[in-house]
């Protein structure tokens, strides 16, 4: 696989999307991102690392953190997690409340905000510090000791977090949170507000390409558990656009409103693309285009 050539082609296609989509502004601290930034990185399972554009520039990880909370909650706590959160696509926006009411406070999947709040709650019970567990895992796998929560972004999320607070209280009313709502929200905002780069994320996400094995060769989870996480990423990782993402890209992937998407080529590599302009579902226009280009030119997808 000629990754430098593929990354160059993906960057050209992504840069041609200039002007399409809008930078997220419902969290005010995200609105200042340079809309034309673009970066992309690949980490292969045999230890090679490639990047183009702003691949080492930090951006707000946002919902990509939900991949790591899920992995850590399953690794530390096992399958019991699925009693409190489902694994079906929601077909609704990531911050929607509607299904919770008829579905007894059990969110559809771990990647919509409601489901991520439940997973954060369980990780908080398991570790005593959910956001710290995510931060430490990202630091260890990426080898970047400076990676941390951006306090300004976390505060901005909290100050404008009525929707997430409503979701958390509703879930708590169904006894599906084990910790106080305020603590769950604090950890949720703190892991969403971690500043990280395409470089860090491909290294941290590589355990899913290595079927559950970490960078140091130890095992975070079994092969079968890694397969399951990749499956939920494919069906739910890009919200109500998961069908379109699977159609265009053909890889398990997780997006965030900071404009990043981390995708996995099982057995081969982790790939991350970043551009702050988002489509209506909250997925980066440039990142989806870049990943589409990479899998189309290389013929390398899960299908
Ligand atoms: O809770 C929120 O709304 C944000 N912290 C995360 C949302 C997000 O990244 C959805 N992704 N596309």
From TrEMBL:
Substrate binds at residues 63, 113, 157, 164, 188, 239, 257. Gene3D superfamilies: DD-peptidase/beta-lactamase superfamily (3.40.710.10). PANTHER family: GLUTAMINASE (PTHR12544). Homotetramer. GO terms for biological process: glutamate biosynthetic process; L-glutamine catabolic process. It is an enzyme of class 3 (hydrolase). Keywords: Acetylation, Hydrolase. This is Glutaminase. Its EC number is 3.5.1.2.
